[in-house]
Each structure stands twice: as C-alpha cells, then as structure tokens.
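seq:
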Amino acid sequence: MLKTSELPSLRIHENSIKAWKLTGFIWGWSLYLLPAFLIYMFITEEDFNPWYILISMVIVVTLHLLMTIIFPKIRWKRWRYEVDEKGVDLQRGIIITKRTIIPINRIQHVDTEQGPIYRKYGLSSISLSTAATTHEIPALDDETANALRNMISELVRKVKEDV
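struct:
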C-alpha cells in the first residue's frame, strides 16, 4: 500500500548516470557551437571584443560540466518510484523535488520506449498515460521495464473489471 509519508523505495537503474552523461555531452557540444555561431553572426570586426568569447565560453563550459558530471548523479540519487495495487508513486527532481502519486484506476495505458542512447545501456522508459497527462519512469533495465509495464497493465485491468 502506498504510504504518502514514506519515500518510494525503488530506484531507477544506475546505468542511467552513463546515459544522462552521454546525453549531456551531446547537448553540450551544441551549446559550444551556438555561442560561436552567434558571435560570428552578430559581431562585426570593429565591435569585436575577446571578452565576449571568454564570457560565453565560461558560461558554456560551466553548463556543460553541470550537465555531464554533476546533474546525472544527483538526478539518479533523487529518482525513486514504487508501484502497488493502489497506484504509482514517483519522486524526482534536482533542485526542486516533485512527488506524484498516480492512482491505478486513472491510468489509461502503459508504454515502454527506448531511444538509441538507452538502447546502448540496456535501458527503457515506462510512460503512464492518464486522461490529463503522461508520466514517465525513466532508465529502467529492459527486463524490469517490461515486467513493470505488464504488472501495471494487469493492475489497471483488474481495477477496471471491479468497477
């Protein structure tokens, strides 16, 4: 039974750290290219000041380090979930912690998905769709994701039959 006073007990797979670091690295390179492009497009030779480049690169490198080194591990530590016959309890957040409890009878369908980075690390995400929105449990190993999807689907089917 879900106890709202206690934290959810299950964690997502630890390979999520590697997957999120790779994603951060890819996004980071795009952040390197954007300031260079903007400086090239908007600064003429007479307006050129090396401080523009230095300041933009310090900002970009700082964001890149946060996205690739610091945030993935914190994100993994904070992500928790739990599933039982009453609902799905999700807790996540780096700076602001968000907790969501989704009643089983509100879930309309359950999907698993896997992009190329998750596939590389043997991970999948579960999407829980309700009438209002979609919630995600990211970075579960493939076996756990399939078992959890089937379990949630079965719990939803039982609840719908009882009504």
